[in-house]
Amino acid sequence: MLQAIIFDVDGTLADTENVHRVAFNRAFATAGLDWHWDRARYGGLLQVTGGKERIGHFVDTTRRGQYSREERDDLVARLHASKTRIYNRLIEQGSVKLRPGIRPLIDDACAEGVRLAIATTTSPPNVVALLKSTLGTEGPAAFDVIAAGDSVARKKPAPDVYLAVLNRLNLSAASCIVIEDSQNGLSAALAAGLPTVVTPSRYTVSEDFRGAALVVSTLAQAADAGGATRGAGILQTLRAIHADAIRQGAEAMLY
Questions:
Q1: What is the dihedral of CA 180, 184, 186, 191, to 10 degrees?
Q2: pTM
Q3: pLDDT tens digits, residue range 203-231?
Q4: What is the 3-state secondary structure (H, E, C) of the chain?
C-alpha cells in the first residue's frame, strides 16, 4: 500500500532551474566577476548536483590555477551564500508556480493520509522559500520530512538522501513512490529501491529515464492517462503505478 510520496524539488515541484541560473549570474556580477552561465552552459552544469558543487566544478574546470585551495573554497562559499539570498528574493516575489498537478496531488494526499516528504540537493532555505511562496506560509508543514542540501554526505545520483528520508519516515522503500525530473534523481531513487515517476523539466527532457515506472510531461498528464483530470485522479494513478511496481519487484524475486 502506498503510504508516502517523496518529491524532488527543482524541476519537479516547480520549474525553478532558470531562476537558479539567473540568481547565480547575479551573484557573480555582485562579486565583480565576469562569469555568465547561459542556458546551454547551465544545462551541462546541472549534471553536477548541488549549488556549491556546481560553482566549485566551474572554478576547477575553467579557472584552474587562479585560486589557492583556501581561496577557492572561500569564493565558492561566498558566491553560494549570495546566490541563495538572491534566489530566495526572486521566489518570494512569486516568480515561480508549481508544475501542473502538483498542488492538487499534495492537497488530496494530505486529505487521504498519504504522507509527503522531500529529498533534494538544494539548500533548505531554497526549499522553504518555494513552499511558502507556492503553498502559503504553512506549506512546509505539509511535509513530514524535508531532507535538503548537505543533510547527507553524498548527493544524487548517490541514494543517500532517499535512504535518509526513508529512515526518518520509518517506512520501507516498498511503501513509497518518488516524483523526480532528472536522470541523476532517478538513479538515486532506484538505487534506494524506490519506484519512480519522472516528469522531465526543460533542462532534462533529453535525458535517459530507463527504469522509471512512468515518464510523463507533467503529473496532470499522468491523471489523464489514468482516465481522470483532478488531483484525486493523479493520486489514484500513482497508487496503481506503485502497486504494479511492487508486484513486478516481487515477481522478479521468484526468478
A1: -140
A2: 0.91
A3: 999 999 999 999 999 999 887 665 444 54
A4: CCCEEEECCECCCECCHHHHHHHHHHHHHHCCCCCCCCHHHHHHHCCCCCHHHHHHHHHHHHCCCCCCHHHHHHHHHHHHHHHHHHHHHHHHCCCCCECCCHHHHHHHHHHCCCEEEEECCCCHHHHHHHHHHHHCCCHHHHCCEEECHHHCCCCCCCCHHHHHHHHHHCCCHHHEEEEECCHHHHHHHHHCCCCEEECCCCCCCCCCCCCCCEECCCHHHHHHHCCCCCHHHHHHHHHHHHHHHHHHHHHHCCC
Q: What is the pLDDT of residue 224?
A: 67
Contact 119, 12 (CB under 8 A): no
Q: What's the confidence (pLDDT) of residue 203?
A: 94
Domains and CATH numbers, the chain: 4-15+97-252 (3.40.50.1000), 17-92 (1.10.150.240)
Mean pLDDT computed over every residue of the chain: 93
Closest C-alpha among 174, 161, 179 to residue 14: 179
What the block records as the C-alpha cell of 189 is: 531513487
Structure-block grid coordinates of residue 80:
553560494
* Max Cα distance, the chain (Å): 61
pLDDT tier at 255 (50, 70, 90 boundaries)? very low
By annotation, the residues acting in catalysis are: 8, 10
